[in-house]
Amino acid sequence: MKKRRVGTISMGIVLIAFGILIFIAQVNRVSAINLSIKFWPIILFLIGGEILWYSYKYKDEDVNIKYDVFSVFIVLLIVVINLGIYGIVETGIMSKVSSMISSENFTFKIPYREIEVDKNIEKIIVEVPRHCNLDMRSEKDNKIIFSGSADITAENKGKAKEFLNDEYIITKSSGNTLYVSFLDTSIYNNRVNSVYPYKFNLSIPEDKKVEINGEGDSLDLTIDNMKNDWVIDNISNVKIRLGKNIDTKLEALVHSAESLGGNAKWETAGSESVEELDRIKGKLVYGEGKNNIYILTSGEVEVNTFE
Q: Which pLDDT score, from 0 to 100, does residue 94 have?
């Protein structure tokens, strides 16, 4: 009695086919997983076709059709794995994983904006976003000028550009006070997409009272001229460049004298406040000290003047 094994041919074809798919994926830079998902049902046709072929061909002969258990097991194992992948795709997990793998990082300039400031506004409060570097300048005109840069992770450049359509700066007035805040980009951050504005540039009128606070990493401030008082609170590191004709008195409350730097000649003394006895107060006076800059920080304060 003759013996015929069923499954060997199917396994051979499957292995060759998968090899071809992987080769195509590498040459054309496409996903081998996606190709496998599309073509895995062919495995069932191969096994079923081989069984029907042998059954039909040798139905009238004295042939013992023996199933190649190992080959069938390997083929079925491949089927199960692909079915598992297919199930993951159906739940949407695979698309997320694929997007994560194919995601790229892009750096964009945030769209430039100019915002007119109402003449009734006397004070501007700026809320600095967390983990963001803010560059600020004093501006002669009665307007706010905004720009910046952002790192965006997305599937492609077109998708990344979609995140630039939002208004990154938000202004709201209450009485004679204008509040300036920035878009919370954490709403975009997930395992596929992320938006991290790493730098904002902001110019504000020099004749307004200014209060800067929040949880920003650093503040880089350039003041050519100022006609009112500024308060800077809860910014990790503050770097200030003052115009040579500036008329201001600057006081910084820090943890140690080593936290005061730059080309400025600091006067230091212990804090007079009972609650802040462990603090050092640094003081600078330019001109008559007509306007005040008060800084409270846990990091460093660097002040430089233009020569």
A: 53
Rg from Cα positions in the chain? 34
Contact partners, residue 220, CB within 8 Å, separation at least 6 = 133, 134, 135, 136, 239
SS (H, E, C) 187-242: HHCCCCCEEEEEEEEEEEECCCEEEEEECCCEEEEEECCCCCCEEEECCCEEEEEE
Instruction: Kindly state the average pLDDT of the residues 153-179.
Output: 84
Q: Which amino acid is at 53?
A: W
Non-local CB neighbours of 157 within 8 Å, separated by 6+ positions = 104, 106
Backbone torsions φ then ψ of 87, nearest 5 degrees: -65, -40
Contact 249, 283 (CB under 8 A): yes
Q: What percent of the chain has pLDDT over 70?
A: 67
- Are 294 and 251 spatial neighbours (Cβ–Cβ below 8 Å)? yes
Closest CA to 220 of 207, 203, 206, 196: 203
Contact 35, 25 (CB under 8 A): yes
